[in-house]
Amino acid sequence: MESMLLELFVFLAAAAIAVPIAKKFGLGSVLGYLVAGIAIGPFGLALIHDIEEVMHITEFGVVMMLFLVGLELKPSLLWRMRVPILGIGGTQVVVTSLAIAGVAFFFLPWQQALAAGLILSLSSTAIVLQTLQEKGQMDTGAGRSIFAVLLFQDLAVIPMLAGLPLLATLALDHGGHHHEAALFDITELPGYARTLITLGAIAFVVIAGKFICGPVFRAIASTGVREVFVAGALALVIGTSVLMIVVGLSPALGAFLAGVMLADSEFRHELESDIEPFKGLLLGVFFITIGASLNFTLIGSSIGLILGIVAGLMVLKWIVLAITARVYKMGKQDRSLFAVALAQGGEFAFVLFQIAKSKGVMPTSTIDPLVSAVAISMFLTPIVFLLHDKLSRNEAVEEDESEPDTIEQQDHRVILAGFGRLGIDIGRFLLTAGVKPVILDHDVSNVRILREYGFEVFYGDANRLDLLESAGAREADLMIVAIGDSDRAKNLVETTRKHYPDMKVITSATNRDAAYEMMDLDATAVFRETFGTALHLGQAALEQLGIDPYEARRLSLIFKKKDHEMMPELYKLRCEKEAYVSFYQQHHEDLKAVMELDHPAHQKAVDTAWTAKNPEL
Amino acid sequence: MANILINFAHPMKSRSKINRALRSAVEDLDDVTINDLYDHYPDFMIDVEREQRLCEEHDVIIFQHPFYWYSTPSIVKEWLDLVLEHGWAYGSTGDALSGKLFLQAISAGGDADTYTKEGYNGFTFAELTSPYRATANLCKMTWLPPFVVAGVHRGLPKEQVQLHADEYRRVVAALRDDRLDLEHVLRSELLNSDLNQAIKGE
User: How far is CA A5 from CA A38, A329, A540, B89, in A?
Assistant: First the structure.
């Protein structure tokens, strides 16, 4: 127990120290983790053991990441991406595999060369996606192409897992890891049954994601106990993974599928913010283990060979990627990022090399330098990203005029917090005006009813920073606070102001005092919740009393304007009771003078308005 | 027989004796529709379709309004800007108003003799209303000289108001019954300068 806690402490402390330092130097968190791994690994301070074990556990971070990626992708969007996934992804995997195999064929028998080609064609989903997300490049043209390729690679792992043993030429290494069945081993079943079970499992994930998860999460959410929801979310991801492993599919793929099925649900942002920290931690530790697993003894003894493999691997992959990008007619900027981003080995290579070893496909002497080369190429990736950023920035400045902007037009990003009696009309108004806000509401039954009416409302408490984050607060331009509860509304304005100082915040306030407090918090604009309705009712009352509608309207507008003008004065005086009251009364009297229907001053104002008349007559 | 549309525009009609009197003098006539623009559109959101339909359903279109700044209250300008669409009111296919009669019924603050070249206001009613004449012209309507009640700023005596109201009623009824001598009217500067001559068969 103690040693486990100690090891946990070492991992977390290393991350906590290394990542901020790396970030400070603009290196990105991935590189920070990798360096931390080297520092605490066997060739650094030697503080950790069982690196492989930890690596296997934390590989689960990749699964969670794909779940999160799935959450961002609605099925319709995924369907639109089928061409890049199959086309660009397929081209990259096939051509890279053959190219690497071709080169390896000079040194290895063809079976081993082909196995190495297949395994090394994969890139690192974890490092690339994490880096792209950190840079906010997921939504660019290059980002989408890169994602398409990574997704195809994740799919390609499945046939590779199945096919690798067919390339075995060596005597089996007894006692090696065999497929460990969690519940039962379906490999003992006949072929057709296996296929049926596999298809059944996928169908189950799709159907469960579409029809069962909604009611279950709704029931969980209605309890209002947050950690139960977190538990539910984790159970969903882990359960899906287990199911996929049992039927012999990639758990990452299953989690991705589950994510896609839930992308349309009202719990999207809540799930995202609940899983996100687990993913971050697991991936972080996973990167640390990659850093720690760099075998410096081996690297030292055959440094020439390994560096040669690294250089060959990255250059070869880069060439294939660059050609692929050209064939699929990407823009110049997109092309270079695309080629640089995917030119490394991936974490699946560790898994596949492990299998290649245990199934007798390749000897350890071949595998070890390859594994080291993959790890080094992954280590180099964040650095390559940095270099590319520097170079392309210079280029971008030079080419500013000739190249059109490749950044996609972003939506107006508006977050509407609260979709109750006030928020619903704000939302309807904005939607009909073509502005699509991200709508958050914390009342699960309300959310369900509104969803039935076709509003895309997400369940969640807007006061939680992580939920705001996954609702896109970082890119949003505007926050609209339409929460009835004064304290929660204030809290949200405060949080938004503090964490997103560039975002404009317009808010409702229950009454004048609440409005002052909102002004204290520096809200961009504050509107008293009932003021508009009060004016409309007043105007309607005047009309019913026989006042001309146009005059009633003008009076209401005058009142509104005067009240608005009075607000800053009252705000200044709000702490001095007497001055406040007397100012208020004075203002009220003045207003009455201007507005009173039969008042001489008003009569005169009306009579002198509009008419040009002879002053002498 | 003709249908008559009176587009009434006064932002505070409750305070205009003369306009109220004129209006109530014609309100009970058959085939006369009064369309109060400020009542219908206090926030100036003019319903173009409704207004066009009303125009199409009537043969005579009267704008009754005070002569604010030698012109109309602002909602009438808004009305013209929005309702008189190309292809409907004017242009090669814009024939919706073709052949209809156009008339302004104006209440002016200054006395009639101030609206002369030598007078205080320096221009005649014919000159000052010429943009509306041009507008009617473009829309292929028959423009009529304005019906003017001048000198209202001092407040006209009751009898005088009644006199104008009666005249207004006579004009509107005559327009409705095709009893207005258009040729005679078009020769005069104001429609109501000599009603006994202008209206036939009374």
Answer: 20, 52, 70, 85
Q: Is B119 part of the contact surface with chain A (CB cutoff 8 Å)?
A: no
Q: pLDDT tens digits for A141-197?
A: 888 889 889 988 877 877 787 778 788 887 654 444 444 444 556 666 667 777 888
Determine whether the interchain pair B38/A548 forms a contact, defined as Cβ–Cβ distance below 8 Å.
yes
Chain A, chain B: beta-carbon pairs less than 8 Å apart? 57
- What b/e readout covers A66-97, taking b as 16+ CB neighbours within 10 angstroms? bbbbbbbbebeebeebeebbebbbbbbbebbb
Asked if A551 reaches chain B (Cβ–Cβ under 8 Å), the answer is yes
Helices (H), A105-140: 110-120, 125-135
The token pair that represents A448 in the structure block: 């369900």
Residue A548 and residue B66: Cβ atoms within 8 Å? no
Nearest-Cα residue of chain B relative to residue A614:
B110
Which of A10-24, A210-224, B1-15 ranks highest by mean pLDDT? B1-15
Q: Does the pLDDT of residue B164 top 80, yes or no?
A: yes
**In terms of Cα–Cα distance, which of B55, B123, B160, B107 is closest to A611?**
B107
Task: List CB contacts (< 8 A) between B121 and chain A.
Answer: 614
A551 and B39 within 8 Å at the Cβ level: the answer is no
Nearest alpha-carbon partner for B145 in B180, B114, B187: B187
CA distance linking residue A382 with residue A377, whole number of Å: 10
Q: Say if residue A596's pLDDT is above 80.
A: no
More confident residue, A161 or A105: A105
Alpha helices in A224-267 (DSSP H): 226-246, 251-262
Choose among A322, A204, A259: nearest CA to A66: A259
Alpha-helical regions (H) of A25-109: 29-40, 51-58, 60-72, 75-80, 82-83, 90-104
Lowest mean pLDDT among A103-107, A174-178, A582-586, B117-121: A174-178
Q: pLDDT digits over A18-67, tens only?
A: 888 887 776 677 778 888 888 888 888 888 777 777 877 777 887 888 88
Residue of A nearest to B150 (CA): A613
Among the partner-chain residues A549, A607, A612, the one whose CB lies closest to the CB of B69 is A612
Give the nearest chain B residue to A553 (CA atoms). Answer: B42
| pTM of the predicted model as reported, rounded to 2 decimal places | 0.61
